[in-house]
Design a protein that fits this description.
Elements lengths: L31 E3 L2 E6 L20 H10 L10 E7 L1 E4 L14 E3 L8 E7 L20 E4 L15 E3 L5 E4 L1 E4 L14
Parallel strand pairs: 2-3, 3-6, 4-7, 5-8, 6-9, 7-10
Antiparallel strand pairs: 1-2
């Protein structure tokens, strides 16, 4: 069977639906202001029904969608902020999204330029204990708490890996910090899809 990438209305799915699952509307993201930064929290295994990204206990479930949200914030919406941040809880499988339906190996975590012009920090390596302690944001330790972007979580052969685990688009000002990025397979001659 082909894994569906969109629901019946054409809305992209951020996770593969399980047999018998039904589609529910996405929870709108809500950033929090921490110092002079705007922040979204991500935990792909968050069980809260209010997973809006505003705290560790209500962390959003999709890194790609958190990036898209931050990219869509305007200069007016970010007035007074000096930067954008996405904090990611430890997890062994942070999945990229499909970017080209014709080739599943083109899935990627795509980072476009931010409309606000602000830099984006995407920081991983936070322990799961943070979900019960929302006051803790300075305990990233990626060697102990692994935030893994895996380009081949289900494959046994290296050639099954994604071309790019991360794709930074022109004009993006982004820093990835505290991630383990593994099992990509940028092999081929096409620069956009396979090179580099």
């Amino acid at each position: 069977l082909v894994t569906p990438e969109v629901d019946l209305a054409g809305t992209p799915l951020h996770r593969t639906p399980a047999l018998g699952a039904h589609h529910v509307d996405a929870v709108p993201l809500q950033h929090s202001t921490v110092g002079d930064a705007l922040r979204i929290y991500v935990n792909v295994d968050c069980q809260s029904p209010e997973h809006n990204g505003a705290s560790w206990s209500t962390a959003y479930r999709s890194l790609n969608e958190a990036i898209s949200y931050m990219a869509g914030l305007t200069r007016n919406e970010t007035a007074g902020a000096s930067g954008l941040e996405i904090y990611v809880l430890e997890n062994e499988a942070i999945y990229p999204h499909y970017s080209y339906a014709s080739d599943p190996k083109s899935a990627t975590i795509e980072v476009p330029a931010m409309q606000s012009g602000l830099p984006l920090l995407i920081k991983g390596g936070f322990p799961t204990s943070n979900t019960t302690d929302n006051t803790t944001d300075d305990n990233s330790d990626p060697l102990t708490y692994r935030s893994v972007i895996d380009g081949n979580p289900d494959g046994d052969d290296r050639s099954e890996g994604l071309y790019h685990c991360i794709d930074v688009l022109a004009g993006a000002n982004v820093t990835f910090e505290g991630f383990h990025i593994i099992n990509g397979n940028a092999a081929g001659e096409a620069v956009r899809l396979q090179g580099g």
